[in-house]
Amino acid sequence: ADAIRDVAKGKTHFSPEVMDRLVVKGGRIELENPPKTRRSMLSPRERELLRILAKGLSLKEAASILGISYKTADKQKASLMAKLDIHNRVELSRFAIREGMIEP
User: Which residue, among 85, 104, 89, has the nearest Cα to 39 in the 3D structure?
Assistant: First the structure.
């Protein structure tokens, strides 16, 4: 009810949970500990593997480029797909394009 009254009066309203996380930095209001982006959850190696796979190269080719075994590349692919909640190569490519990791 308070939220509706505040907004009706042209005020801004934040839930108590959000208010607890707001901090002032350099004259700006920011969220303390902002949520991580999906991309930032990946290790540098996983990001590189993602770029290679999203360009359409095979896992065998990716392993060769990265100088790792096929089995290691497969484990890293499984890890990055789990972190991103992605289930196939098409979704992987879409993610990489959307994130600016590869050109469309």
Answer: 85
